[in-house]
Structure formats: structure tokens, C-alpha cells
Amino acid sequence: MEDEPAGQEMEKEDFILFEKEITRIQDAIDAFPKGEFSHIALIGEPFAGQNTIMGEIREKNPGTVTYIPFFNVVKGKEAITSTYGTKDIVLMDRCHFLALRRIGGFAMLDAFLDMISMSDKKMFITSWNSFTWSYLRAVKDIDKFFPVVIEVPKMDSKALMSAVLSHYEGDIQFIDDVEPPGEQPVVTTKRVRLPLPFGYSRDIPWPRLNIGGGTSAKTTEEEPDAKKVAFDKITRIAEGNYGVALRIWERSLDYPELKLSRIPDPPCAVDLDINESFLLNIVLSMESISFTDLAEIASPEIDIEQTLYRLTRQGLIEEDKGYYRVNPETLNCVISHLRRIRMVW
Amino acid sequence: MVISTLNETEAIAEWPFRTFDTGMILEIVYIIVVAYVLVKILSYLLRRIADKAGSYRITATMIIPLLKIVIYASALYFIIAAVLQPSLSQLVAFSGLFGAALGFGLKDVFADIIGGIVIAFERPYQIGDKISVQGTYGEVKDIGLRSTRIVTPDDSSVSIPNFSVFNEATASANAGKTEMMVVIDLFIDAHSDAGTAMAILRDAVVTSKYVYISPTRPYTILLADFPYYKRIRAKAYVNDLRSEFEFRSEVTRRAWIELQRQGIEPPRFPAHVTEAPAE
């Protein structure tokens, strides 16, 4: 692939998204009749692609597996006990809905763990949000129940290019309309206002490193380079998250044309208090959560309506039919903020 | 003897001090002001950087005391160079005199400065740590050359001489880390269901917005039985030591709402114990 001639694309039909992870799970399913099985946890960040993998497994094994997805926080044991009369291989999607971060919020998770501990004839293939997984691993040692943990991988620029372009039949034109920066020194200076004691301030020169300065200069005619630059940029902004990259791509594309200047790269400036950060953490950990479920966690400590309003206004979350989720374009900004204040581990 | 007398005469002739004039005084004032302003500016910038550094906050602030020592030591050197024109022998002689002066009049100040240097290099505590020293508990706000300033939970600023690092035990609750263990006690009636109470306190701790849990920072729930009550104790880490009291308060408040909902009561005075009448 490194020496691929300009303009030559990977054969679209050859590309299978998350092939390695799907093969691992399929091998486990194929080995199940021989009595060799372990429960599997598939974990990934929001939008990373767990749904794609679970969907693929479901399609490949229609008569072999029972599929149980969760869309809301599980509040009754019926959802768990319903697995008793199912096929021996159970796909449980979005298991992060089994726990709610409040006092008494682990009852359903405990019931589920009790069930899989007692069941030695069924194999459970479960998917989890990675932040909920990390939290439950610290709090409930959940990893001890799932000997096989498969992480949804981050994608590199080439894999992303293949994955995205496999959705399109026709060719897409990539246009580099970004002004080349030209030759720049490695260190430049800018003037910053320095606050001084007693209410004074002064403008002082401040060094600024120009790492890789001038290297992104491209000409508009070099389409293959523009394509590579576009996917490099999308991959960097999405930090390899497939769903986020797809969202950025869709927002940037003006079919059949993609201009580099249309790829958004918003600054990451998060200014939140502890309650806002906590609610943001819950939304991140649940991927998509209803107002009612959020209110159960927040009440009475947090004024949920005001907090959701402020999070929405800052563009960090978005609402869709009463469900809240992190805005994909700000996902990595949100994660880095919550990691910095040690709210996600 | 003759040679010796001659050298003494020469030494007196080579008086090491420059003539004091307005220019020299202004130069000394200028050096002091520049050093002071530089320390303030760099400390301010480092604190701003530390605030944005999240879990590396305390690592960033530990540079501040070292910086102060370097700047003030440089300022002292420039002042001496401005006042004196010393030869080597004169510098030795002056050092002797200076040492004697320190020994008689400034030994406490000098001991504090040495204490400050030891704190800066050995780091028994750092800026941002929660420490207990000389019976005072609080957050270290500044480590100066002469004293360490800590702010107590009731917002009193206390200056502790740096020399105390040599002769007082200093307890640091977090030892340079951002997280810190917090102990939360709940007392319930002796006849209440302790198992349920422990489960409630455990849930209150692990679902707190302030908690930090990792393999090296686990939480523990303990039960102790006393004659008229039971004590449920939680030991857990707060993600930022600045939220120590908020963490304790939030967990206690949420736990008690649930405890009372489950019919678990606080301790009551036994029938044969009466409160002493107020005088």
C-alpha cells in the first residue's frame, strides 16, 4: 500500500470493516459446539463501531444466536431473565444500560452477572461503552466475568479512506483549496498580553514552535495528495474513531466534491463546572440516554434542565427525540476534558 | 612579622566596599524589584499552567520554590557584586564576618532559608499538597524562602517557618499526587441493618462525581461495632484533593437520604443515659 501509484484505489469490494474483530468473534461462535467457549466483551468509544460488528455477527449467524439490544437503562429483571429460553449464544448489545450511576443503580448488572455466573451452557457476546466498562471494571471487577475482551480499534488514514469510499460508486473529487503556508521558520514569535501584579499588563514576545511548517503546502492540481491530506486531517480530528470520522466526512462532503477548507477543525475549549462535567460524563458513558434516565442520576443534586442547556449551547452534546448524546465532532475534546479532571479513568 | 604587618596595611588600603552613592542604592533597589517581579510573574504563569494541567497540577507547581531560590540567589550575587569589589582573600574575610553576623543575629532567618532550600530539593511537601504540621492542617499555597504558607479549611492563612522541616513531623495527605484518600464515617443505630447500610455507603461512594478508583487507589467499606451505635466507614480517593470536603459532604448527604428511605436511623441515646444539663 505504501507504494500504491497515485490515483489507484484499493478494490472497494475487498474492504471489510473491522475484519479482524469479526473473525475473532466468529471463530468463538464456530468453536462453541465443541464446548470451548468464554464470554466475550466487545468494548469501544461512542461511535467507534461496536454496532457494525454486532450487526455483522448477527447477520452471519441468523439461526445460531439470539440478539438482545438495550436502548434505555434496564429497570426490570425481565430483560435479563428473557435470555433463559433463548438460543445458546446470546448477543447482548449496549450492555452499559445495565448499570446506572446512582445509589442502587447496580441491581440489574448484579442480576446479569449472577445469571452468567450460573449459566455454564450459554455463551454471552456483549458490547459495552469503553468508559462504562472502565468504570465498572474499577467498581465491580466486571472484567473477571469476561475472559475475552475485544477492543474496537482506532482506524488509520488508509483504512478510513477505504471504509468511507466503499460507500460511494462514483469518483469523488478532492480539492485542496487551503492556502499553502509557504516556507516558515521553525520558531516564530507572537505577542501575548502578560498580566502583571497591581493590575498592569504588558505585551511580550512569545516563542511559537512551527513543527512541520511548510510541509502541508500542496497544489490544487494534485488530486491524490489532496485525498490523502483530507483523510489524514479527518483521521487526526476524529482520532481514528470511525463514527466520528464518518460524521466529519458527511458534513464536509458536497457530493461529488470535497474541499479541504470545508473539513471543520473546531478549537477545543471546554469550560464546565463539576456538575456539568459529571452530566457530560454520564452522557458520554451511556452514548445515548433519555432525559428521564439522566434525571434519575442527577436529581436532586443537579439542575438537569439548566445543565443540559449549557452543555448543548457549548456544542458538546446534542438532543434527538428526547435522547442526549455527545456531539461526535466534539467527542475527543470531551474525552480529553474529562480525562484531565479525572472523571473518566 | 614584617611581611604580615605589610599585608595588613595593604588589606586596609584595599577597602572592599564601593562608595555608597545614589546610583548604587538605585542599582540595589532595581535588582530587588526585578527579582521580586520576576518571581511573581513566573509563579503566576506556572500556577496558570498548573491549573490547566489537570492531574499534573502539583508536578507543575513544584518548580516554583526552586525558581525562587535561583532568582533570589542570583539577586543576592548581583547585590554583593554591586556593593563589593572583592578579591579572593577579601571575599573569604567577608564571608567570615557575614557568617559571624548570621550566627549572632540572623541565625533563625538563615535556618529558615536553609529549610526552604531543603524543602525545595527534598520535597517533603509541595505547593498544592494538603499537609499537617505543628498541629495545623491545610493546603500549601506557597513555599517561600523563609516560610511556607498554608490555607486551612476555614480559609485562615498560616505561615510556618521553613526551619520546622528539621524538627517537626510533617504529614502530607497526598504526597505530591492530585488524588487523596478521604475517610467518611456514618454512625447508625445499633439495631439497624449494617449490611444494607454498608451497601448504601458503598454505592454512594462509587457513584460520587468526585471519586477516583483504580487498582492502586481502591475503596474500602468497614464496619465497627460500639456499645450504642455502629460506625460505617468508607475510605476512598477524591479525584482532586481540592474537592476533599465536597466529596465527604456529597457522599454523606446522598447516603443519609437513602439510609432514611430504607428505615435506617442515626444513633439514639440509650434510655439510661441522659444529657448533662446545660450550665
List keywords for this structure.
heterodimer; A: about 350 residues; alpha/beta; 3-stranded mixed sheet; 13 strands; globular; B: about 280 residues; alpha+beta; 5-stranded antiparallel sheet; 9 strands; about 50% helix
Can you walk me through this structure?
The complex is a heterodimer of chains A (about 350) and B (about 280). Chain A has about 350 residues and is α/β, with parallel strands linked by helices. Chain A is built from twelve helices and 13 strands. In chain A, the strands form four sheets. Chain A has a five-stranded parallel beta sheet. A three-stranded mixed beta sheet of chain A has the order 6-10-9. The two termini of chain A are about 35 Å apart. Chain B is an alpha+beta fold and about 280 residues long. Chain B has eight helices and nine strands. In chain B, the strands form two sheets. Chain B has a five-stranded antiparallel beta sheet with strand order 4-3-2-1-5. In chain B, strands 6, 7, 8 and 9 form a four-stranded antiparallel beta sheet that branches. The termini of chain B are far apart. Chains A and B meet through helix 9 of A and helix 2, helix 7 and helix 8 of B.
Report a brief summary of the structure.
The complex is a heterodimer of chains A (345) and B (279). By secondary structure, chain A is α/β, with parallel strands linked by helices.
Order of helices and strands of chain A: HEHEHEHEHEHEEEHHEEHEHHEEH
The oligomerization state is heterodimer
Cα separation of the termini of chain B:
85 Å
User: In one word, what is the shape of chain B?
Assistant: elongated
Secondary structure: elements and pairs:
The complex is a heterodimer of chains A (345) and B (279).
Chain A: H1 19-31, E1 40-44, H2 50-60, E2 65-69, H3 78-81, E3 89-93, H4 107-118, E4 123-129, H5 130-140, E5 148-151, H6 157-165, E6 173-175, E7 187-195, E8 201-209, H7 223-238, H8 242-252, E9 253-254, E10 257-259, H9 274-286, E11 289-290, H10 291-298, H11 304-313, E12 317-320, E13 323-326, H12 331-340
Parallel strand pairs in A: 1-4, 1-5, 2-3, 3-4, 6-10
Antiparallel strand pairs in A: 7-8, 9-10, 11-13, 12-13
Helix pairs in contact in A: 1-2, 6-7, 7-8, 9-11, 9-12
Chain B: H1 2-13, H2 22-52, H3 57-61, H4 63-83, H5 88-122, E1 130-133, E2 136-143, E3 147-151, E4 157-161, H6 164-167, E5 171-172, E6 180-189, H7 194-206, E7 211-212, E8 220-225, E9 229-238, H8 244-261
Antiparallel strand pairs in B: 1-2, 1-5, 2-3, 3-4, 6-9, 7-9, 8-9
